Amino acid sequence: MTITQTVDIPASRRLTIDVPREVPVGWAILAFTPTSDQRPAAPAKTSKMTEAQEMELINRYADRLNREALDVLSYQNLDL
Questions:
Q1: pLDDT under 50: residue ranges of the chain
Q2: Cα distance between residue 45 and residue 65, in whole Å
Q3: Are the C-beta atoms of 41 and 35 separated by less than 8 Å?
Q4: CA quadruple 76, 1, 44, 30: dihedral sign
Q5: Using CA atoms, how far apart are residues 18 and 55, in angstroms rounded to an integer?
Q6: What is the chain's mean pLDDT, rounded?
Q7: What's the CA angle centered on 2, arms 4 and 60, to 5 degrees?
Q8: 0.85 cut: is pTM over it?
Q9: What integer pLDDT is reported at residue 35 of this predicted model?
């Protein structure tokens, strides 16, 4: 999963990041790529999914997500 957002970095160089709920808990890699000019990039076009579409997406990836969760738990020595 890759999430891209263009931000304006203030003089303090401090950013606060709110991670969407769709992003799984655990390790992540943050990458910063300075833009070649100072104009903000055009915002990405987003389309709102219906509840039915969201459920279809969740169900489509449920098995894979469950396997990943069990894999992560196995590294934590937790008994299920």
A1: none
A2: 27
A3: yes
A4: positive
A5: 24
A6: 78
A7: 135
A8: no
A9: 74
At residue 34, the pLDDT reads 79
Q: Identify whether the C-beta of residue 41 lies closer than 8 Å to the C-beta of residue 6.
A: yes
Residues in the chain: 80
Taking Cα atoms as reference points, which of 63, 69, 64 lies closest to residue 25? Answer: 69
Give the pLDDT score at 46.
67
Structure tokens at 15: 């950013």
How far is the first Cα of the chain from the last one, in angstroms, to the nearest whole number? 27
Q: What is the CA radius of gyration of the chain?
A: 18
pLDDT in the model for residue 45: 65
- The half-sphere exposure of 44 on its side-chain side, counting CA atoms within 13 A, is 8
Q: CB within 8 A of 43, min separation 6: which ones?
A: 6
What pLDDT does 73 receive? Answer: 77
